[in-house]
Amino acid sequence: MASRDTWLQTLQRYQGLVGLALLLGVALILDPQHFYTPGNLANVLNQLAVPGILAVGMSFVILTGGIDLSVGSLLGLLNCVCATWLVDGRGVGPTILFTVAVGLGTGALLGWLVHATRLQPFVVTLAAMVSLRGVAYVYTDNGTVSGLGKKLEFLIQPFFGIPVSAWIMLGVTVVAVVLLSKTVFGRSVYAVGGNEEAARYAGLPLGRVRIGAYAMNGLCIALAALVFTARNTNGDPSAGTGYELDAITAVVVGGTSLLGGSGGVLGTFVGAMFIVCLNVLLILKGVNTYVGMGWKGIIVLVAVYLQNLEKKR
């Protein structure tokens, strides 16, 4: 019995790595001549930046016991804001600062709403998902913003052989690991997600912790939106549709509990790698996009089931 518990705990802790290893094994069987080429592996790194940064931000929210369904909509809005500012002739620096400020502020506002209204986070962020998407369409007058040129191209150019966007993803991951493991704020995030009542009795500022977690998520969405804009060189109000599913899947596959209080960003990084490799493999095999979404839903279900196996016994 003890060995079974040890095996189960090991699987739950490293389920992201196990899943990634299985997926790479499947790729080796199904399409080794295309998947394991240097060009495709570089493409995986390039594709990792946006979903990886989004997943790191989502980790902060989920660790507090919350969730954010508005990730894709906010990315779409920030993509349009960034593109519009650049097309209107504003400098790259002010545009980046403004995009980051809007993302940070919107995330903090959502955190405040979740705390102040006492509503379930999925209700608040579901409303935000609809509203932010609507704002994006109104902001662009239901059109696409084009004419950016190569103003943000430096974000996707290689630096020491790796795209700058991938370096940003790695930097965001390192900062998040330090924040969550070495600071009072990080320990408070785990405490709020693990047992909110105990955190309240311990005197933790629940509102500030929750606002901080959602603000970090907003900051990550802004960084992802800048990379997305650099890659696509336009502003599209429909951009980012469904990205919240990829972010949540990466966090859960990486071993973070949807109930909050346990998990970590390193697991999320592995989970994001899993999602990107899965997407690339599905594209290489010509699998329909909607069939791929179905598989991701099943993967989330399996990951959550594995996390809760011990609690069911």
Report on this model:
- By secondary structure, this protein is mostly helical.
- The chain is 76% helix and 1% strand.
- The chain is built from 14 helices and 2 strands.
- It has a two-stranded antiparallel ribbon with strand order 1-2.
- Helix 1 runs antiparallel to helix 14 and helix 2 (15-30) packs parallel to helix 13 (265-284).
- The longest helix is centred in the C-terminal third of the chain and has 27 residues, at 206-232.
- The chain is globular, with a radius of gyration of 19 Å.
- The model has no long low-confidence stretch (mean pLDDT 89).
Which descriptors would you attach to this protein?
313 residues, mainly alpha, two-stranded antiparallel sheet, 1% strand, globular
Q: What is the mean predicted local confidence, pLDDT? A: 89
User: Major sheet, described briefly?
Assistant: 2 strands, antiparallel
Number of strands: 2
In spatial order, strands of the major sheet run 1-2
